[in-house]
Amino acid sequence: MAHILITGGTGFIGMHTLQQLSREEHTVTVLVRSLKKWEQICRQMNLETAWHTGKLTPVIGDLSAPALGLSPSDRKRVETADVVIHAGGPMDILLGEEEARGAFLQAAEEMLTLAAHIHASKGLRHFIHLVGFKSPFNHHNWNAPEPVIAHSEQAPPYERMKFLADLRIRQGAHKEGFPLSVIHLSVVIGDSAHGDTPQTVGLGILVASTARKLTGLIPGGKSHWLPMVHVDHAAEFISVLAKETHPVSETYYLMDERQQSPTMMELGTNMAKELRVRKPWGSISPAWLSSILGTPIGRKLGIPKESLDFIVDVDYPLDTTRAIQHKHGLTQAVNTDVLPFVITDLDYRIAHSRMDTDGFVRSRRGPLATLERRVDNVNPPIVFVHGTLSGADCLIPLAEQFPESSVCLVDLPGFGRSPYHHQEDILEGHIESLVQAIQTFKTPIRLVGHSFGGLLTAKVWERLPERISSLHLLQPVFHPAPRRYRSARITESVLGRLSESGLRKQLLSQTCFESMEAIPPAYITYVLEELRSPRVKKTTAEALAMLTRSDSFRFASEIPGLPSKEKVSIVWGMKDQIYTLPEQFHGLHTLHIPAAHHFPISQPKQTAHWLKQHIEQITDVLSGSVK
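Given the sequence above, the corresponding structure tokens read:
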């Protein structure tokens, strides 16, 4: 349909836009600074086929470099574009003057030079420019900009240079005569399905402040709001604009109506609930708070006063935006059901320094966030459920040993990226969440649970035997935990003070690992960073307290899954000196191994070997019984 040039294609909005454009009959050229980053994005967004078949073509360049830093051959290629989507530029509200000038204003000049050449030589069908919603320029005031520029002089360099870039491209488009669509994006959050939000600078600042218990007073309270848009909704909007055969120059604001959006007080209260901290008790004027944050004392809080610029108390004109959305049947509203996932995803990202999940994609199953890798074959999907002081990421080395099967690693409620279940009954909340997640699978699954996850999967097995082809328990906790954990409040305090050496000693004394050398360094890092989150810390303490109560281990039958016990297997590490396997479970097929409690984490390859043996044995037994 068109040859499209896009800048910022490896950014948060850009990569979702590429995913949308790849579904159309376009050829797309993508300006990238790094081929390595491009390859990573292609794997992450499943764009490798579109790349290798020529629908997507990367060219190496730099927005702020003369002639975009393109080679002569790549320059010729981009000069044949019909549509230009300019989405490039860093999301860093703390950029200095010169950095911001190069990233936005100089980039605007380079893009205008290219657009003018294309329009003079062949005609440019459409220029689409992505700008922040706080830009004061629109189709009514750009040709008399002096008062607006004067009013914006006090804005931070990041905002001011974005405003001037908006103005410069409007001026250039008018002079050269090509159609220009300016999209004023509000705060962009994760997609409307599972809320994955790698861009932590926007809403993430408020999440981080709430997690640090610095938002007892909410800026703006009930009078202000934070305009937001899902990244996939933004990408869909950009994609349909790129398809317009006769575009007109227009300005579009992408956001919900103010009346449909939570007030700052409502947003702050919901955020506190998801992060499991005290709800805010009052409000403060954004102007007052900004002046406080600008002082030396305020700067020690680590909250940029520039972040308050996104909090507003005005409405924005949405008629042109709604006309395009109605014309193409686009979804416009923020999905309130996914906001808890956005909040917990940001909480996770802020707490963790490394998130190496290459080969797995973030997804969602019912109320749980997941990591998934899908394979097209007839093998039942394998679902892995972690224990306490753990998460989906910790079981990636184990899941990687099953390339022949689709795998799904869940984050239990309140752990990793999953919102807490908020039920009064802690155990029931976890069980019901896992039940709902499993019910999203179209075919029966193989269910694998470690430690606390073993208890939960056994409970789920009782409720959904028809949805589980086999159950595999790795060191399941089937009797009360040590009484030292019975006070959730004390445990939470202790978890908050854990050091690296203290955690290692605790893990060794609890026979989670056989030796210091057996503890993976990445696991130590994960646990300590995970416990930075008040949500995870509180959930972990409550789960451990719940596990000290004997009534948590009652089953509907004497042995879980007794009518189908041939489908159940246990791998038991005999070096665990805290937990033992109760006698009533000895009738289940059990492999005793010389290992400690956390062997799925310390010995993933060997654990996979044992699991595969059990899977084969169960498959053989079931096929024999059919005969």
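The longest strand covers residues 126-132. Try to locate this feature in the token string yourself.
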